[in-house]
Write a structure and sequence with these properties.
The chain has 183 residues and is α+β, with helices and mostly antiparallel strands. The protein folds into two domains: 3-136, no CATH class; 138-183. The chain has seven helices and four strands; from the N terminus they run ααβββαβαααα. It has helices at residues 14-23, 34-40, 79-97, 123-136, 139-151, 158-165, 169-178, and strands at residues 44-46, 56-63, 66-71, 107-111. β2 (56-63) and β3 (66-71) form a beta hairpin. The protein is globular, with a radius of gyration of 17 Å. The protein starts with 13 loop residues before the first helix and ends in a 5-residue tail after the last helix.
Length: 183
Amino acid sequence: MKNYEAFRKKTISAPELHGILEKSNMPFPVPVDIEKLIKFLNIKIENKPDFTKMKVLGSIRVENNEPIIWINKIANQLNERKRFTLAHELGHYMLHLAPLSTWNNEAFVDEKIGFNRDDEWDHREMEANGFAAQLLMPAHIVRDKVNKYINNNQPLDIEKLSSEFEVSKVAMKYRLQALGIES
């Protein structure tokens, strides 16, 4: 049995996934090794160029009853962008594909569009973004690191935090806001 099959017919949040994998002796040090996690789940990652998909950041599809994440190498040249895209696609798996009782060549294709309500907003994209943020920047670890700044009477260093978690400064700012932490 492939590891991703253990999550079939369930909706799993990022914090739940952290807990499940920690119980399976796969701890999550920061920064989360998203590629290792996806490989552990036996989900294939493709990153071959596809010039017909230049506006696509990434996608996840089911082919022959197996999930496959495709990542656009050109659009994801920065490590932080690539990590977030991979975590986002894993979010589509855990939140939108795994819960389905059957897979009929399902796919989620993420184009370079705004993911807010003013643009071509899709609640599933927002959910996958939230999953990615929670997976790469677990709340308890972010709070612990922020508390160290507070306890040492230091100003919050977004650049250092984003570097520690290997996410963009923008992603870190959004995560801090989501956690009610002023940056």
